[in-house]
Amino acid sequence: MLAITISPEILVIGAITGLAYAALAVGLVLVYRATRVINFAHGEIGAFGAALVAKLVIDEHWNFFLAAAFAALVGGAIGAAIDVGIVRRLFRAPRLVLVVATIGIAQVLFFAQAVLPGINRVAQYPTPLSGTLSIGNLVLRSQHFMVMMCVPALVVALAVFLNRTPYGLAIRAAASNPDAAELAAISTRRVSTLVWVLAAVLSTVTAILINPLRGTIVGIPSVALGPGLLLRALAAGLVGRLTSLPLALAGGVALGVVEGVVFANVGNPGIADGVILVLVLALVLARGVRTGDDDDGGSSLSARLRASAARASAVRGAAWTPRIAAIASLAAAVVLPLVFTSAARNFLFSRTLLYAMVALSVTVITGWAGQLSLCQFAIAGFGSMTVAGLMHRGMPFLPAVVYATVGGVLVALLVGAPALRIRGLYLAVTTLAFAVAARGWLLSADVFTDGQTTVEAPRQRVGPFDLHSQRTYYYLCLIALVAVVAALSALRRSGIGRTLIAVRDNEPGAASFTVSPTVAKLTAFGVAGGVAALAGALLAGLRVQFGADAFGVDESLRAIAMAIIGGLGTVSGPVLGAVYVIGAPALIGDTTGVRLLTSGAGLLVLLLYAPDGLLGLLHRAHDAVVMRFAHEPAPLESPATREIGKSAARRSEGPTSGAERRRRRDESRAEELPDLPPGAAALRVVGATVRFGGVHALEDVSIEAHHNEVVGLIGSNGAGKSTLLNLVGGYVPGTGAIELLGVDVSRVPPHHRARRGMGRIFQDARLFGDLTVVEVVQVALESDERSELVPAMLGLPPSRRAERRKAAAASDIVHFFGLGTYANTPIGDLSTGTRRIAELACQLALAPRVLLLDEPTAGVAQRESEAFGPLIKQIQAELGATLVIVEHDIPLVTSISDRLYCMSAGRVIAEGLPDKVRRDPKVIAAYLGTDERAIRRSGKLRRPRKARKSGKVTVS
After folding, report:
1. Which of 24, 49, 319, 686 could form a disulfide linkage to 233, CB 3.0–4.6 angstroms apart?
2. Which pLDDT value is given to residue 567?
3. Single pTM value for the model
4. Domains in the chain and their CATH numbers?
5. Cα separation of 393 and 219, whole Å?
6. How many CB atoms neighbour CB 411 within 10 A?
């Protein structure tokens, strides 16, 4: 019915090809199981070995098997060098940093393949066997026999090695439990090296086998083989979640069969890449893959340039240094084409500016939003092809650029949709799949090319300006770059920029601040897609004539390298990175040494020795100069909570009270925040049940907290207290009814619960490490007045006024809590006690009706811990809120609670007044130990003084 041709011959050839993909996937799975890293250099390792074999056999007349053995040894040496030189040095770094390092390795290997001496004659890729075997309509050639002989032998040998040898058992043990393996005297570092060697050998052998299957012609320029091979290995590995070798083998064979059917039924082989994209998306989304490795990935890639404000202002004029540098850079860019007048140089300068724009899109999506995207240049390609297609249909150049930019936003939103369920490593896989499919299928579609292999975007005259001139076109690109830099700078300083960083650093924490992670991620994808598509649209006019092959995956990887080399997470860093990677060869010549330094080698060096990029080096040099003429400021120390409270009482008359702020918000959002019905509990939980696998974390738990009441939750570790708060906040799935202010919120996402009046303080006090104290409070103030995207990017007066109001309110709150000294200090640099105070400051900004506190004194020194009870009570009085607090400090929780619940093994075993609960025999047996003497301290907590009428926070 669908006119699909499927024959035994197609299935057999497809299965043979799939065996090769399966062998490649096995190496990928081995590395992932051992290190939890997706090796994006896996395909390029094999491609380099395959190129080496072709050179040795065709030009040097080596025996094929001898050349293949030598290439396998080279591949193994490359794997060992990667582990010893890169993986071990970045062993303690987040996994996503290692993933980016493998991207740099892939670029280095691609460069190494490019500088290999060229093959002297054009020929088919060599194979050692000759002859064919015909069975009916099935024709098996020598390349098929090679796969049929080698791959099963490799798989059997690997299985025997892993299951029957001490080294294999050590690999399996280290992959299952590295800590236990170390205790068993297994060197996980040696195991890691062995795994990388095995994976590299498998990659090399597989590439040697796949080239003849694909009919590769050597001796002529061709598209890089590595990314396509890597995608197929990833798709096969995802069948087994990158952990199961048998499922990866089955997935590889199935993928080969599917690809064979596609090749037999369509004229465009690139459609197979589109089919693989769909399969990858289905595998990732159907399994709902999320790993703990992803949680820290985004923030770890950002440049955290923490130059102290005190140091910057210590010398007159030092604060103006960035502005002076920006003005000087712009002036140099304006003068540049007047000094270098040749059209070829101006072409290269224009190309540098446009690549800088693509790198800026990487900063938005990866540096700010924490989503590793490997398809930004594919989106730029969409912009280029759209301009060409529209101009071919008669549309003028500039309107075509506008339409292409809007189209890029839409495509980026579609690509970013999976980010709502996945992030980090697995999102990188899906974006890689899109990048491969875009070059082979999407960008070569007839709607863009009209059936031609190349398209044109001829330059036109726009008003008085003739874009045919390379110099004029350069100035058009410069204007576009300056506009993008200004818009992104304004965006980063706005509430939207702060919320992007907040979601990246701590998604649950951002949701508790009323921020929608979904909206934040899609906003980042849309903005980044628009910037990349705009760059691609202008690139079409620069190139004039081009094809889909100009937008390969290697260009997307280069854009990532530019952003990281310059300084990911900043606006000026990617521009500096583009000048280094693209502009330097244009100025001083594209020699082999320059190409090496500006390729992945530069990325690797910076990841190892200067992870904040070239911009970080410049900042440190600037700081050194500033400090040469300035007095060294006193180091910041974390004062006790008691002193913070006293400082607040002395230095500030206090901001608008929390109750007043909440009253104003309630009036403006009456529908979302209805009045509490008479007699209703502020928070009621009925029949809460949560299971993790077969374990009951909560079982039929019911609690309630009334208006302006403090309810304490006590119990031993693992009793289910934090799980209960996570369920109430919407962070874990479960069953049961949850009523907030008389409204059922059981099916409401966390950020909507926060908007309905639920606040949350988490146990880890992590907040948002790369934001300063003032910025974190401003994120909380977004609940009062949300920033809008277009006004924020354009810096319109309403947006500027709103930002000034939020900055003033945040400053008031910060000084009210005595945190003025730390106002411009990143949260990640503060002590736990000071972060706790910052959390309470954020709650004053949020003004919740119900506040959930999960061990607010965890990690706090005893002296500061004793001051928290009075401080919490006074914050409650300031907010007029209901508090539910989980705390192991029994004297503290009993001193501030009106009622207590005691939990054990996921159930409530006692409830009532604090004295009654702590004397309950079941509570003593399950938690307190023997009797009430077990919970007494030698010194009692002092009771809080009455809050002064001025509304200041005071702690005795």
Report:
1. 24
2. 87
3. 0.86
4. 8-265 (1.10.3470), 298-628 (1.10.3470), 680-757+848-956 (3.40.50.300), 769-847 (no CATH)
5. 38
6. 25
Tokens of 224: 């890089």
User: DSSP secondary structure string, 765-792?
Assistant: ----TTSBHHHHHHHHHTTTS---HHHH
Q: How far is CA 221 from CA 113, 120, 930, in A?
A: 12, 13, 80
- Distance from the first to the final alpha carbon of the chain: 82
Give the C-alpha separation, 373 to 476, whole Å. Answer: 28
CB–CB of 34/174 below 8 Å?
yes
SS3 715: strand
DSSP per-residue codes, 506-555:
-HHHHHHTT--HHHHHHHHHHHHHHHHHHHHHHHHHHHSEE-GGGG-HHH
Tell me whether residue 490 is exposed, middle or buried, using C-beta atoms within 10 angstroms of its C-beta: 0 to 12, 13 to 18, 19 or more.
buried
Rounded Cα–Cα distance for residues 48 and 204 (Å): 8
Residue 690 parent element (H or E): strand 683-692
What residue has token string 């399996």?
Answer: 172
Q: Say how many CA atoms lie within 13 Å of 681 toward its Cβ.
A: 17
Q: Are 926 and 902 in contact (CB under 8 A)?
A: yes
What is the per-residue DSSP string for 377-409?
HHHHHHHHHHHHHHHHTT--HHHHHHHHHHHHH
Write down the pLDDT at residue 303.
Answer: 41
pLDDT value for 460: 85
**Exposed e or buried b for every residue in 172-188, given b needs 16+ CB within 10 A?**
ebbbeebeebeeeebeb
As to burial, measured by CB atoms within 10 angstroms (0-12 exposed, 13-18 middle, 19+ buried), residue 790 is exposed
Kindly report the backbone phi and psi dihedral angles of residue 856, in degrees, each rounded to the nearest multiple of 5, phi listed first: -65, -15
The pair of three-digit structure tokens given for residue 102, joined into one six-digit string:
């493998």
Neighbours of 327 (CB within 10 A): 11
Q: For residue 659, which phi and psi values (nearest 5 degrees)?
A: -65, -40
Determine the length of the chain.
956
Query: Do 573 and 614 form a contact (C-beta atoms < 8 A)?
Result: yes
Rounded to whole angstroms, the Cα distance separating 568 from 574 reads 7
* DSSP code at position 469: S
Write the DSSP symbol of residue 320: G
Q: Can you read off the two tokens belonging to residue 31?
A: 């590395």
Q: Element (H or E) spanning 759, and its range? A: strand 758-761
How many whole angstroms from its chain centre is CA 127? 42
The values of phi and psi at residue 368, to 5°, are -95, -45
Q: Supply 411's token pair.
A: 């495509």
In the chain, which residues have pLDDT < 70?
1-3, 219-225, 287-321, 423-424, 589-592, 626-679, 859, 861-866, 928-956
Distances (CA, A) of 324 to 318, 338, 493, 580: 10, 22, 19, 20
Q: What is the pLDDT of residues 919-930, one digit of tens each?
A: 888 888 877 665
Among 152, 154, 172, 153, which residue's Cα sits nearest to residue 162? Answer: 172
Say how far apart CA 313 and CA 375 lie, in whole Å.
41
d(CA 563, CA 613): 9
Handedness of CA 811, 813, 814, 820 (dihedral sign): positive
Cβ atoms of residues 817 and 780 within 8 Å: no
Output phi, psi for 591, to 5 deg: -80, 170
